[in-house]
Amino acid sequence: MQPYNLFKIYGLAFASSPIFFLLGKFGDTFNLQIFSSICQTLSWVCPLGSLGMILIIVGICRLKGQTFHELFLSLKATFLIRRYCHSESSDSFVTADGKMINPRNRITRKANRSLLSLDIIVKNDTAELTWWLPLNHESKELLVIMFPNIRPKLNQILPTYVFSDITNDKGNRYLARAHKN
Questions:
Q1: Using one digit for the tens of pLDDT, what is the confidence trace for 52-68?
Q2: CA separation (Å) from 121 to 36, 124, 129?
Q3: What residues pair up with 100 in beta bridges, in sequence order?
Q4: Per-residue pLDDT averaged across 160-180, rounded?
Q5: Spatial separation of the C-alpha atoms in residues 26 and 34, rounded to whole Å
Q6: Cα–Cα distance for residue pair 89/158, rounded to 1 Å
Q7: H or E segment and range at residue 123
Q8: Which ranges of the chain would DSSP assign to H, the alpha helix?
Q9: φ and ψ at 91, to 5 degrees?
Q10: Residue 64: C-alpha distances to residues 59, 60, 61, 122, 124 (Å)
């Protein structure tokens, strides 16, 4: 799992601690002692567990030879390129029964789901984009059409790096490597 995805999960757990705290106070007012104690415990455990896991992730990245600045650049670039590549489906029509059908909805959903595997790793003087495209032909075709537009966006997001074209590495794995100017 990519570090960016883990930061999203633990950020959500960290953000949920005020909700557990408020639920604990709600339980106190209605004499729900067990519910209140569980919620108050979770309000402290969630942020501490999240903070611990974030420190573990940062430690693993440091062991791989990535500095904090490079880790931040990787997370920022991954977030921005995923947001840029996200597709919307709007080709829908109404059948004789009055149902709205969107044949491209499933294809677009699979293509957007593959964005979770898109990752940019910045390390020393190189950067590497890896992306596992879906097995579905239509979804893969939708994403491959976007490749020429992604390269200038990558060069805009990380201006000190020059990215190569996105090419098929093996199977459904696609790569783009970059070097520093």
A1: 766 777 777 777 777 87
A2: 43, 10, 7
A3: 94
A4: 90
A5: 12
A6: 29
A7: strand 119-123
A8: 3-15, 17-29, 33-63, 68-85, 104-113, 137-157
A9: -85, 90
A10: 9, 6, 5, 11, 11
